[in-house]
Design goal:
Layout: E1 5-7, E2 12-14, H1 18-23, H2 27-51, H3 57-65, H4 73-91, H5 97-116, H6 123-146, H7 153-165, H8 169-186, H9 193-213, E3 218-220, E4 225-227
Length: about 240
């Protein structure tokens, strides 16, 4: 017997499969919010690139990769998203609508923004772009995660490893980001003050904006729900 839908606890995230996401209602708000969040996430990445004083940990890897293969930064984001999705298979993570959209939209949005935005020479402008990129990433994360349409590729890798190893999300996320930064540096990626600022602030920023953007939905009885206070900081790419 199929469990009757129930309303998720207020201010809670739920873990749903593809079809359950579609059946949870409010798609007229959730889908546009997802897309806006993903587009803004790509814009935030481009702002940090043009600031040129340090990138987010995964983007250190992307910036190193494009030194060795004929890809744009956005294309590298897309390629690495699908590489990470392959790693989901042994972890038995379920992709959702937002997972596939994330893998494609963020990279394309980043490239479009980079094509329109020139790099400033003044340090004050570069700092403003970096800070604006980090803050915008926090807003974009709240929008994208709050749409309740599935984790991004890198988030799913984090949660899958945490579940399979029994380690905390915080420890797994830290270990993953240390690894990708080291690999990115080995490839010639860009590490700087912006990387440290991002690492220290993206969690708190997401914690601020996510409750504002979280959409309550109807879910099947028994679906896993996480109270908003317990949400682990996540990189929505």
């Amino acid at each position: 017997m199929t469990a009757a839908p129930v309303t998720a606890p207020p201010r809670a995230l739920v873990d749903l499969g593809f079809l359950a996401q579609l059946r949870a209602g409010r798609l007229g708000r959730r889908l546009p919010q997802l897309m806006v969040g993903l587009v803004l996430y790509g814009v935030s990445l481009a702002l940090m690139v043009r600031g040129n004083i340090g990138l987010a940990p995964w983007d250190v890897l992307h910036s190193g990769l494009i030194r060795h293969v004929p890809l744009t930064l956005g294309q590298a984001v897309v390629v690495m998203s699908f590489v990470v999705l392959v790693l989901w298979i042994p972890l038995r993570e379920q992709p959702g609508i937002g997972t596939i959209a994330n893998a494609l939209v963020v990279g394309f949005s980043a490239d479009a923004t980079l094509a329109l935005l020139d790099a400033p020479s003044a340090m004050a402008a570069r700092i403003a772009l970096m800070v604006g990129g980090v803050v915008l990433c926090g807003i974009a994360s709240g929008l994208y995660i709050g749409a309740q349409l599935g984790r991004g590729p890198r988030d799913g890798l984090m949660t899958g490893l945490a579940r399979r190893t029994g380690l905390s999300l915080r420890l797994v996320r830290t270990a993953l980001e240390v690894v990708v930064v080291l690999v990115g540096l080995a490839l010639g990626g860009v590490l700087g003050v912006g990387t440290v600022v991002y690492a220290l602030t993206i969690g708190p920023l997401t914690q601020v904006f996510l409750p504002m953007c979280l959409i309550d939905i109807d879910v099947p009885g028994g679906a896993a729900a996480s109270p908003i206070e317990g949400i682990a900081p996540a990189n929505p790419a």
